[in-house]
Specification:
Chain B: This is Iron-sulfur cluster-binding protein. The complex is a heterodimer of chains A (about 200) and B (about 475). Chain A is of the alpha/beta class and about 200 residues long. Chain A has a single domain, classed as Rossmann fold, CATH 3.40.50. In chain A, about 20% of the residues lie in helices and about 20% in strands. Chain A has a 6-stranded parallel β-sheet with strand order 1-12-7-4-2-3, sandwiched between helices. A 4-stranded mixed β-sheet of chain A has the order 8-5-6-9. Chain A has a two-stranded antiparallel sheet with strand order 10-11. Chain A is globular, with a radius of gyration of 20 Å. The termini of chain A are far apart. Chain B has 3 domains: about 100 residues, Fumarate Reductase Iron-sulfur Protein, Chain B, domain 2 (Orthogonal Bundle); about 250 residues, 3-Layer(aba) Sandwich (Rossmann fold), CATH 3.40.50; about 60 residues, no CATH class. In chain B, strand 5 and strand 6 form a beta hairpin. In chain B, helix 3 crosses helix 12 and helix 16 runs parallel beside helix 18. Classes of the chains: A alpha/beta (about 200), B alpha/beta (about 475). Chains A and B meet through helix 1, helix 5, strand 9, strand 10 and strand 11 of A and helix 2, helix 3, helix 4, helix 8 and helix 10 of B. Strand 9 of chain A pairs antiparallel with strand 9 of chain B.
Amino acid sequence: MLGRIRAALGGAAPLPLDVPRDYRPGGELPPGDPALVELLVDRLVDYRATVHRLAGDGATVHSGDIAARVGEILPSGCTVVIPPGLPPGWLPDGIVGVPDDGRSHEWLDTVAGVVTAATVAIAETGTIVLDGSPDQGRRVISLLPDLHVCVLRTDQVVASVPEALRRLTPGRPLTWISGPSATSDIELNRVEGVHGPRNLHVVIV
Amino acid sequence: MKTFLGTPAVAPRGVGFLRGDETFPRAARKALADPQLRRNLGHATTTIREKSGAVIAELPDWQELREAGRALKAATMSNLVELLEQLETAVTKAGGTVHWAADAHEANRIVTDLVRATGERRVIKVKSMATMEIGLNEALESAGITPVETDLAELIVQLGHDKPSHILVPAIHRNRSEIRELFLREMPGVDPSLTDDPAALAAAARRHLRETFLRTKVAVSGANFGIAETGTLAVVESEGNGRMCLTLPETLITVMGIEKVVPTWRDLEVFLQLLPRASTGERMNPYTSMWTGVTPGDGPQEFHLVLLDNGRSAVLADEVGRQALHCIRCSACLNVCPVYERAGGHAYGSVYPGPIGAVLSPQLTGVADNASLPYASSLCGACFDACPVKIDIPTLLVHLRDAVPHPMAEKVVMAAAARTMSRPRLYRAAQRAARLSRFAGRRGRGLPPPLSGWTSSRDIPAPPPQTFREWWAER
């Protein structure tokens, strides 16, 4: 097959792969700039994600504050799955957090939700990226439960796609999430919630 | 494999969906007679155009991104051999297995054998143009394996024993009440009180497929990008069915056209900005999955990548036509095309409809097999403007019209016209004769057979009572 392709190309000199890139290499604002966080929130809300902001600029957010907010999102007494390396103290009392140790798909399908951290977020597109790190876990745990709570630090927020790609490690399994699962297959009406989590809550700290 | 010289290997006949049963004008006439279809299409294309225009306007560097996308694709094609070898090495190193499929028959056989080896009788599928192109579902079914389409629109198409009519929204030709009826008829255990609210219909599909996702051990996908440098594959989607297929099963088989290879990781920064805005009119599609070979403990532990030619090397051999391979399947050209908007996707007879289909399908099959498609356009150029990687579709259409076998009558007429126009006396006589047709009136002005085909869908302008030369002579 490669011989066929080579013959089709007819021995012409190959074009250089180093092409002109006159587009923006990044945004004008540094990661975590309050205006970027504002933009991210706007984009997330536009895609019907629920956004929770904890404290403003510079104020220290304690894990207790996160736990309190997570407690408001999740129904009390429910069971959620958590990645094995979720920072301690993010779950409030009264929520059962089961660390994922290779749980079955059937079991994951029965839990009320999942709480994860994130790797990077893109303000311009309203995107959160998970890369399977210990505080984010296997891809499946943020897929089967119907509610996903994602805790994001402001310093993880970059302006644009090129900046996000520079922060990611290609070999890792990556999931880019822009709002809850959606479809526009029926008369192009956007409907949230087909197969992925129908509820996406983003807690920004 | 080295028999290429002289006869480029096009996609074989008798397998897959690149050739229609009838010519474009014949099929389009049927579509034009369906007012419901035209309403659905008009609504859909107008909506996507507006959404897409709004989010494209948000990016100050859209034109620079398009140019980078064009340049990257052109460079990729001219380095295709090296890039594919690099991709194979990277995927293999990351624990995947790479297979080479020269055509649809080979690809179908490879995938069928891989599924058989797992002992499973059912596979879940995420929407993929390549597997539809090669007729993989039909091949699997004849081997006793059930393919389940999991994309909502594909499910609608599959339940309706129908064919997709749009690259991105395959069920664009069905409205909500048609979909409701289909679900009530074809979906086992569906709630009989199901309404035609899109949210209710989507929820019905979620319930219907959840069990299948949890129990099926093999998935088949396509790929939007395959990165040579890292061996990373990427699938963009909306519903989460893609994530299900790419994450839950034990075995994943990805079928990718060879033109989908992207040189470096960094190049994704161009295509991930272009694709969603041009395609669904979103800043980013809800889900994008990227994986590199096998990740221990996360997702499928067996990964196969099938690299598909099926006529692509024949397209590559045409230096002008080659551009059609730059397509990233966004379907922006369909949504702006006045011909597609009226005729719909089925009229093109191939899984690739619209302007890009009119230049891609005839090249994959050889123009003789899709000879009417290069004419399925008014050459208005809207597709060129809309294309996120700047494929010059109008130029390709004209180029392919040249390559289409032309009827003898046309050659005779063109030769006669050339003779007449290069002899002033003959030309004057012809002009006078044409003037006589004024007495025939509007209806009678069609050309006589065998030229009547030309005037069956075109009006010949009425000849003026006085020619320019006569007017000039009087001054």
